[in-house]
Each structure stands twice: as structure tokens, then as C-alpha cells.
Specification:
The protein is mainly alpha-helical. It is built from twelve helices and no strands.
């Protein structure tokens, strides 16, 4: 666990560096409307929701383990709300799409954890020891298969595409809040951990909505494109080092 935590902390440091405004302000791919304040907002979204500090991520990991059942079996959500027809009547015809959008957004957490597991495996293969250095982390990233990196980066891009659709995201948030309310009414069936997991998922989606709702559709696309570009740029630069 110590090795994994150190790998994650080193990875957090690389995120801080590649989303520092002074480091990217001259990049021609940076959206022209991005200021230091806007860049910081994007950075904090990464660090608070995808790669939080060790203490917070333990709670996050436990919650997403609970959420896995709903992510992999969306019909469970329909069941909690009564049935699909009733849910559509209550939330509108976009209900199924909103549920899928929310699930796809939350799946990014799963892919992030898979990415970390592969980094740990690479570190163990190299017989790396604590304390992990920046070079150790970069070596592990360079060791990863292209397919594994692509899967992770695709999930990250999908996350930003999902939160960029703020109208759908707001619908998803309403649905999940209602799911939590219905679960509260049936505490004999659903435990506190399940309810807390749903609410934590809602919190992440709300932060994503808060981040993106201030932008126009064209600006959102520029942000999504820049994140995809910046992450791939980092990976390619790392691969070239070794």
C-alpha cells in the first residue's frame, strides 16, 4: 500500500506541474479564454475528484467499490425508482440517457484505479522500493502497454465529454439524488454505505457541473480537447525519456 500511495502522490505532482498556468500559458493549444484562475479550477478538479490525497481517496475507493454494482447493472437504479416507465414519467424521456451518462462519468474512477494498479505492477516488476522518486514513476509509465494508456486516457476524455453536457449532467444529478432518497426510505434493504456512495457520486458530478457550466458549448469542447492533448503530450514525452 505504501508503494502505491507514493506512486499516486508522485503522479499528483506531475498533474500539478502540467496544469500550472505558467507552464502552459504559451502552449498554442491552450484555450484562449483560459486564465490562471480557470487553469487552477481545472487542476483542483483533477486533484480533488480523480486523484485526491491518500486520506480522501480511501473513502472514495470504498464508495466506488459500492457503486460498482450500480455502474455495472444500471437496471438496479430503475428498480429503486420503481420501474423504467415510472422513472421516465417522472424525469422525462431522457432518463435512460441520463443514467448511462452518469455511469460513464463515474466509470472514469474505475479506470483511474486500474491505471494505478498497472503502475504498481510495473513498480513491483522493477522491484522498486520506498521512497518512490519521480524517475521511478516515469519508468513505470514508460513500461505500460500502449493499450492500457489509451484506455485510461479515453476514459478521462469521456469524463470531460460527459460533464461538458451540463444539461444532461443536471438531469443525472437529480436522478441520483432521488435514488438516494428512495434508498433512505428503505434502510432495511439499503445500508448507509450504499447511500453514502451514491451521494459521493453526486458530489463528484456536481463539482463537474460547477466546473463546466460557466462555459459555452464551443469553450467546453476546447477544454475537452486540451485535456486530451495535454495528457497524451505528457505520456509521449515520458515514453521518449526511456
Amino acid at each position: 500500500m505504501e508503494l502505491k500511495s507514493e506512486l499516486i502522490e508522485q503522479y499528483r505532482e506531475t498533474i500539478k506541474e502540467r496544469y500550472q498556468f505558467k507552464s502552459i500559458k504559451k502552449d498554442e493549444n491552450l484555450p484562449s479564454f483560459f486564465t490562471k484562475e480557470k487553469t487552477d479550477e481545472l487542476l483542483y478538479f483533477f486533484l480533488d475528484n480523480l486523484y485526491p490525497e491518500v486520506e480522501k481517496r480511501e473513502a472514495l475507493d470504498a464508495a466506488f467499490e459500492r457503486l460498482a454494482g450500480y455502474v455495472n447493472h444500471p437496471k438496479k437504479i430503475w428498480g429503486i425508482l420503481g420501474n423504467l416507465t415510472a422513472a421516465i414519467f417522472k424525469f422525462g424521456i431522457q432518463f435512460p440517457k441520463a443514467v448511462v451518462a452518469g455511469i460513464e462519468t463515474l466509470k472514469t474512477h474505475t479506470e483511474a484505479r486500474n491505471f494505478e494498479a498497472k503502475l504498481l505492477k510495473a513498480a513491483e516488476h522493477r522491484k522498486l522500493k520506498s521512497p518512490i522518486t519521480r524517475e521511478d514513476l516515469l519508468l513505470c509509465i514508460a513500461d505500460l502497454e500502449e493499450e492500457d494508456i489509451r484506455t485510461f486516457l479515453d476514459s478521462l476524455q469521456n469524463l470531460f465529454l460527459s460533464i461538458a453536457n451540463t444539461k444532461m449532467l443536471e438531469k443525472t444529478i437529480l436522478i441520483l439524488k432521488d435514488v438516494a432518497t428512495q434508498m433512505e426510505k428503505r434502510k432495511s434493504t439499503y445500508g448507509k454505505e450504499d447511500i453514502d456512495a451514491i451521494l459521493l457520486g453526486v458530489e463528484i458530478l456536481e463539482k463537474g457541473n460547477e466546473l463546466m457550466k460557466q462555459y459555452s458549448d464551443s469553450e467546453k469542447k476546447e477544454i475537452v480537447d486540451f485535456v486530451a492533448y495535454n495528457e497524451m503530450k505528457f505520456v509521449k514525452a515520458t515514453k521518449k525519456l526511456f
